[in-house]
Amino acid sequence: MNHETEVFFGLLVVFAAAQIGAEVAQRLRLPALVGEIAAGCVIGPSVLDWVHVTEPLEMLSGLGAVLLLFSVGLENCIGDLRKVGGSATLVGVLGVIVPFVLGSAWAKWSGFDTPKALFIAAAFVATSAGVTARVLQELGVLDRTFSRIILGAAVIDDILAMLLLGVVSAIQSGGAIDVTHLLIVLGQAIAFIILIAWAGTHIMRRSSPILDAPINPFSALTLSLALCLALADAASYLGLAAIIGAFLAGLIAAETRQRETLSLQLQPILAFLVPFFFVVTGSQVDLAGLSELSTLGALAGITLLAVIGKLLGCGLGAWSLGRKSALIVGVGMVPRGDVGIIVASLGQHAGIINNETYTLLIAMVLLTTVVAPPLLSLILSREAA
Amino acid sequence: MNHETEVFFGLLVVFAAAQIGAEVAQRLRLPALVGEIAAGCVIGPSVLDWVHVTEPLEMLSGLGAVLLLFSVGLENCIGDLRKVGGSATLVGVLGVIVPFVLGSAWAKWSGFDTPKALFIAAAFVATSAGVTARVLQELGVLDRTFSRIILGAAVIDDILAMLLLGVVSAIQSGGAIDVTHLLIVLGQAIAFIILIAWAGTHIMRRSSPILDAPINPFSALTLSLALCLALADAASYLGLAAIIGAFLAGLIAAETRQRETLSLQLQPILAFLVPFFFVVTGSQVDLAGLSELSTLGALAGITLLAVIGKLLGCGLGAWSLGRKSALIVGVGMVPRGDVGIIVASLGQHAGIINNETYTLLIAMVLLTTVVAPPLLSLILSREAA
Asked: With an 8 Å Cβ cutoff, are A226 and B4 in contact?
């Protein structure tokens, strides 16, 4: 096979697997993404080994995640998010502290020294907004208060996780913690978010008339997509997750009068690209590394710990909303994402953790991702009934 | 910059440049793709050097071309194409012979020995259906007879070019031409096209009722996209251009009752991905290599030869349609594409041609691509007036 044939074959396998997985999941009344992640597990290296995550596939997966969060931002509005700012901050902060404490306790108990234990605990922290946002979107509850709190908390959570990673990396490398540097990084990130949210909204409200006389029916769409790529890149440059930038771009674009059109035109693009994100995520689960019973036990243990950490921390933060909503927020924050995987990869490359611990952490991150969506849809469907 | 930041930055630069280029071109009443290709030249290595064609970008560019030809197929139908089969074959065959003869004459005259001259001439042959199809699409004339002849001829042209490349490569490597192997390759390609066109159409007409009860509003879209990827990959596997497979997939999908819906839902995806194809194409023009006057003269010469070759060959083939349509078909077949670039690259790697000839051939291919669209829209707008 020449290179082009190979690249298209990879795309085809991933895309087709996603369609089959989504179809099966929806017939079982589960969110489509659960089927897509499961399909990824099956075609990934640990089962069928039909697909390897090459650079082009990784890029499509990243693009899928970015566009997904853009569309989530588009269905929200800054005013509504600001209303839940207090609760979201509380949820975000407690949702970082509790898993971090539980994670480091487990790592200490497993025999790691304190610097290593703190490093490992960092993998317990960061919520993946992408997965939960998609579940909430599929269930049509993005405009509910608990959804807004989850999305706001995910932004806070991401800032804190980035900060934490800086601290534990510094401790690990034995160097003194450069507080000034960390404060600058933190300041930049917060300034970026506030600036974009504030200035962007005002500019967008004014520029709306310009977009009203477009040169072609997709001018508003392509302009917003350029904005989305720009803010995703800026966020990534500042050390935040790219999807946070995309989410902000969506929030801003939602202030224009073209919101409805944008939302409609975005749907087919999402239908094409988002599945790549979930299948690639699923394909990274190394089931082979988990074949031993003792490893499975350890995995069950740390996954439970990771779930309890977010349930407790975030549930506590959202307690004022009532038990039901607190439970939804807690479960909604359970899926771990990119940051957990990045921490584990960093640790493995630096020789801080061995292959077994690496596989455990990656599997934990992905299990939280697989477990949360069905739980969330169960709780929400009961509420509806 | 970390890797993610860099990848998104590349996407952003290409996408933003495309929007600006398209806007400028449309204000000058030129097809948007002319502006996109020009924008690619400007941000490419030879001027601003803002973008390098990495693997992810190349993949998005390929995906853009594939989806574009899928949409062109969707706007056609096999029955109408079959009606122009005879003329299209004549245009395709003459459009390969005349440029090949002119190209080898030029190469002989330039001092290359016969095997090398035949190899170089192969770069003069293959039409890029993508560029012309987009121009015809933008001008809204895809349903005219000359458009159908151009599209049909492009398929024939692609088969012949593939065959020719096999022959000249064999001559070049000094080996005997393996006629059996060539016939097998040719037979496979033709069988593939006929099988897909015939069986696909019949299956699609039957499966339409299944698609009528979809599980979600994008089932028909995602199924067609999977079909498009599958046929593009199959075509590439058989040595044809991937876009020929995508075109066939579009033709088949056009037979379903969801044609209108598909066409509508595809538009935003095209608006997002097709610009990557044209900008990446433009970014490959190495203007720096063409700074010397003698080189510029040679370039003007071979480009003229390449244009005249197609005008004569294809125009002659379409003569029965009248002078006007013959001219449109001739100009429409002028843009050279991937195959020309592939031949030049093969020749350079194998040491058959030197860097200067390589740059000349690449520049010729791209110039034909830049020259044809404005000419075509000029001729067509006069016709409308």
From this structure: no
